[in-house]
Amino acid sequence: MYRWLLLILLLLLAGLQYRLWFGEANLRQVWQLEEQILQQQVENQQLAERNQRLEAEVQDLKRGLGALEERARSEMGMVRKGETFFQLIEPEPEQPRP
């Protein structure tokens, strides 16, 4: 009697172990999904920080003319009346002659 009970329990344990390691949603898949979740959380954090920087820049541009002027000077070459614009051109490196 006990042998049959022990045999049934062992078969049940083996079946559960099989499902745990090789069945649908096994441990390997769970570990992979956890790794993907961690990677996505890192990416989300980076994007959230980028969004905060962009939001701060937008607020700065909305509020102050100084930031707007700085951006116009650096990106569009703005020059105020009475200022002199100097453009420095780097010489090209000399090419060795064949």
TrEMBL record:
Q: InterPro entries of this UniProt entry?
A: Cell_div_FtsB, FtsL/DivIC
What's its membrane topology? Single-pass type II membrane protein
Q: Name one GO biological process term.
A: FtsZ-dependent cytokinesis
Q: Provide GO CC annotations from the record.
A: cell division site; cell septum; plasma membrane
Query: Where found, per UniProt?
Result: Cell inner membrane
From the UniProt record, list the coiled-coil ranges.
30-71
Chief localization: membrane
Keywords (alphabetical) are: Cell cycle, Cell division, Cell inner membrane, Cell membrane, Coiled coil, Membrane, Transmembrane, Transmembrane helix
User: Which is a Pfam family this sequence falls into?
Assistant: DivIC
The family line of this record is: Belongs to the FtsB family.
User: What does this chain do?
Assistant: Essential cell division protein. May link together the upstream cell division proteins, which are predominantly cytoplasmic, with the downstream cell division proteins, which are predominantly periplasmic.
Alphabetical list of PANTHER family matching this protein: CELL DIVISION PROTEIN FTSB (PTHR37485)
Q: How does it assemble?
A: Part of a complex composed of FtsB, FtsL and FtsQ.
The identity of this protein, by name, is Cell division protein FtsB
Q: What is the lineage of its organism?
A: Bacteria, Pseudomonadati, Pseudomonadota, Gammaproteobacteria, Oceanospirillales
